[in-house]
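Quick log. Single chain, no ligands specified.
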Amino acid sequence: MLIGVPKEIKNNEYRVGLTPSSVREAVTHGHRVIVETNAGEGIRATDDEYRAAGAEVVTSADEIFVRAELIVKVKEPQAVERRKLRPGQVLFTYLHLAPDPEQAKDLVASGAIAIAYETVTTPSGGLPLLAPMSEVAGRMSIQIGAHFLERPQGGRGVLLAGAPGVAPGRIVILGAGVVGTNAAQVATGIGAEVILMDRSPEALRRAANQFGPRVKTVFAARELIEEHVSSAHLVVGAALVPGALAPKLVTRAMLPTMKRGAVLVDVSIDQGGAFETSRVTTHSDPVFELDGIVHYGVANMPGAVPRTSAFALNNATIPYVLEIADRGWKAALGKNEQLRNGLNVAAGKVTHPKVAEALGRPYTPPLEAMAAA
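-> predicted structure:
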């Protein structure tokens, strides 16, 4: 199969769909890979390294989209890229369609086969291609929150680690999944006071066993969210319903009860956000203030640490890339139910139930759409 890797064009997105080592894996399996020039620049991988791995380096994204049978990216295709997709072409990347009806509309119209990293599952229901970036984003959320708590950045002027004779900062993490537990790991490491909230008793039990008394686990009842958010210096939104819009756990009405200069870091923003007042921001303009509260809503947080995140992502994605390329997308998805769960759009149909529900579009079962493609 001919695999194409375009350079990412989302604001300050420095990751790349395939690293040189992943290209070498694909070539070893008998596939051809074409890579846009400078696609690996953000991770300090040169065109010569891609050539040495067996890739053909081409000068434009247009050539990638015209020639490739399988497009491997990191972030959702931007509008200019969606116009280049063609019927039957396979796109494998993060999509996050639930809060993005324009992207969904364009993918449906393109006739392309869109497989989303974030809805591929494991047999036990885990999210193996979302997990590595959730780990990175969870860990980043604390350092980002710490930065914007600094007074020159508009924050309250609190050091999360505290100081001798001065209490540490108080962090509330909403969601005890991969993002939340990785945030808690960093937060406890710097000595902050940490409250981890979730509606799943099992998730809270796992977190309590992992962290012991360093983290206070609390059931995420509405009244308790209001109580703990009002006293927090930093709130991390880490809620996830796979494929669906994130639940709004912090409302506009809660903001006046919060400490002035507190920071909200919404890691759930790529699924619509866990805070009612969130909106998508960018690495070049990452925060805004509302009612005295600093909001951070960058939807591609791991793009700021591209070497770490690109290699972590490739470690997870390359087996699936090879499965699709080795067998062809229909056979691969037909044989692997967990990979089939990643199918979001095919043959002009929305094929993931939570995505269809969020977008208000008809749902077509994946096998039915695959038969029609």
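The chain has a mean pLDDT of 97.
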